[in-house]
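Hello,

Our lab assistant flagged a job as stuck in the queue for most of the afternoon. It eventually completed. Since we weren't sure the result was trustworthy after the delay, we are filing this so someone can double-check. Below is the sequence as submitted and the structure that was eventually returned. Let us know if re-running is recommended.
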Amino acid sequence: LIFKTLPYLFAKLPGSLVLSTMFFTLFVFTALTSAIPLIEVVATNLMELKKISRRKAALLVGGATFIFGIPSAFANSSAVFPDWSAIYGMNFLKTIDNLVSIWVIPVGGLLSALFVGWVMDKKVTHDEFMVGTRLRALYLPWRFFVRWIVPLTIFIIIIQKSGLYDFDRLLRGGG
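-- returned structure --
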């Protein structure tokens, strides 16, 4: 939308060169300032674990992010990914999007729920649940959901999204 529709709309406006230049300049600054918190978490961990300076950690994380982002910039280029669509049936970005949305995020959520529900000490989860809440009676139902309902639901979502089984057929009565 931003890179296809807006340039077309800006071209129709009087003073479009000034407006579009200002808009896209502000857009670049917005993107950069939005990226800072993403880098900060990883950089802080690097600083604590590897005992390196903030500048070095930020440069390492920023550089790695830039390098890993390069394939995205060339995702639609047949010169960089000539046979990608032929092999995977979709372009590079769509492949990565499917990988992340079907596998990485749900499996990460499943592992998190299993860790919190079954591995973390009950006292730790209780203490964390009670921080800033007065709803003490909800801890036991929450724990039940985190241990049983959430993992089962996420597992069903993974099976459904991966195409291994169509649970919608059960809802339609198809078995």
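-- support follow-up --
The delay was a queue issue, not a problem with the job. The result is valid. The CA atoms of residues 50 and 59 lie 14 Å apart. The chain has two domains: 5-73, 92-172.
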